Amino acid sequence: MARSFIMYLQENNGYADYDIGKEPRGELADKYSMGKEKIKLLFMLILAVCLTACGKNAEEEAGNQKVLILADFDDSEYLRELVKQYNEQQQEYRIEIRQYERSEEIEKDGVLLLQREIAAGKGPDMINFGNGYTTSDIVGGYTEDLFSYLEEAPEKDYFENILQAFSYKSNLYAVPLGFSLSSFAGTKQNLGDRSSWTITEMMECYYGQEKEQLLYPGAYKKDVLGTILTGSMEYYIDWETGECNFNGSEFCDVLRFCNGFSDHLEITDDFSVKQTFLEDKSLLLPVRMRSVYDICRVEHIFGGQEVTFIGFPVDGENGTMIQSCGPVLAISRNSGQKSAAWAFITWLLSPSVQSELPSGFPVCRSTLEEQIRQASEIEYETDAEGVERQVVKQTVSFEGEPPVEIYCITQEQAEQLLALIEQAENISQVEPKIYQIFLEEADYYFNGAKSLKETADVIQSKVYIYVNEKR
Question: Which residue, among 276, 271, 269, 267, has the nearest Cα to 303 in the 3D structure?
């Protein structure tokens, strides 16, 4: 660049013939002054060209990155951090999050807005339905079937039964990153060799007991209804056709059964869950498992008695229910960058990412197996006094009782947990609005304001209208 300036001066002013640092005079001074102005203009011109070129390069670099829009219903800090990490690794693609919100008001509901956008040929590339995910979110087939992508994966390192449970009409329209299990546990002494039961069998078992027992600690009318529906709501609804069956004999039996309990929660301040089961005063224990250590809670409560996980009452299937934890991802059928969207989801399902889930079991099988292996090993640490002690990995506690320290899970517990996960078949994703309809309308029956038939007919009508509005 300096050589060019010198050549310019030699051709126009003869400035290079002068000693640098000496101020020329007379005619030479005029030439010198004119030369300086020309130099300034030339320098500004070159600088402008350089800056323009740099600006274009920056724009081209940003413009060359294809943007994928991710619709998010969770406002999830965890997902935002994952997107940030992924973007830092990418040069070709960049993911941007666009927030949507759920609403019980049909005209304001973000899921319906999203469906309309996609139906109109617009919408995002990907969707995170989040913790509020229910089957109604994906009815209509406006998201891609992810089974077709998984079939082409070189390694199938995931729990197939978990993904099958999230499928709808044999298609996987959304995939969870993590999941939890909900079930009922009881002693084999009370439940025998049952591994599942229907609502009729549950009622017969409860009514047929020789000793007076609670169904489960804290059971009262509305709570029993809500608990049973946690595992059976989807059995009464066909989201594809909009048909419902809440005024049939089976659902009426459920309402009648729930009406036999207390109107309100009856637990005293000195109530002990553990003591209740040690004294065999309760038939069932509701169980929610989100980590490998939660399997220890059941053994702690039952005091070493032989336990079976019978699950929720369902027809002819395993009653342990699967629920999503955290992000539930889908790809829009309108996305023009489906391969890139699937690459992001594949990364989220990889062992390295799955091992950092903040809550729930990972869908990645090898990651969960590694968690079980680590939980099965006793670890030691040396304290400040030089004494080697076992590391407490988890504590199990219930209200009113001192916590129990867990140093590892046993081989039997590890096998039992893995069996529970592998045998689970059904998801439980409760639609909040329908749940609200159940509890509000059932209350009229429980209070004697309406007959059983009137209550069932109203529930049928309201749920039918809501389901068909969501279709």
Answer: 276
The closest of 127, 398, 104, 407 to 278, measured between CA atoms, is 398
| Band of pLDDT at residue 173, cut at 50, 70 and 90 | very high
Q: What distances in angstroms separate CA 458 from CA 18, 394, 454, one per listed residue?
A: 103, 47, 6
Instruction: Compute the chain's Rg from CA coordinates.
Output: 33
Q: Give the pLDDT band of residue 297 (cuts 50, 70, 90).
A: confident
Q: Is 91 helix (H, G, I), strand (E, B) or coil?
A: coil
Average of per-residue pLDDT across 230-243: 81
Question: Is there a contact between 258 and 245 (Cβ–Cβ < 8 Å)?
Answer: no
Q: Computed from CA positions of residues 407, 413, 415, 420, in that sequence, does the dihedral angle turn out positive or negative?
A: negative
pLDDT at 39 over 50: no
- Rounded CA gap, 203 and 220, in Å? 15
Enter the pTM of the model: 0.82
Phi/psi for 272 (5° steps) reads -125, 120
Give the span between the Cα atoms of 374 and 391, in whole angstroms: 12
Cα–Cα distance measured from residue 446 to residue 439, given in angstroms and rounded to the nearest whole number: 10
> Token pair 């709808």 is at which residue?
168
131-143 pLDDT, tens digit each? 889 888 998 889 9
Q: Is the predicted pLDDT of residue 454 greater than 90, yes or no?
A: yes
Using CB atoms within 10 A of its CB, is residue 132 exposed (0-12), middle (13-18) or buried (19+)?
middle
Q: How far apart are CA 299 and CA 187, in angstroms?
A: 10
Q: What whole-number percentage of the chain has pLDDT above 90?
A: 55
Measured distance CA(170)–CA(158) in Å, rounded: 17
Give the number of residues written for the chain. Answer: 471
What is the rounded distance in angstroms from the CA atom of residue 456 to the CA atom of residue 252? 7
* CB neighbour class for 221 (10 Å; exposed up to 12, middle 13-18, buried from 19): buried
Q: Which two tokens stand for residue 459?
A: 């529930």
Question: pLDDT (tens digit, 9 = 90+) per residue, 178-207?
Answer: 999 999 999 999 998 888 888 889 999 999
Instruction: Identify the H or E element spanning 405.
Output: strand 404-406
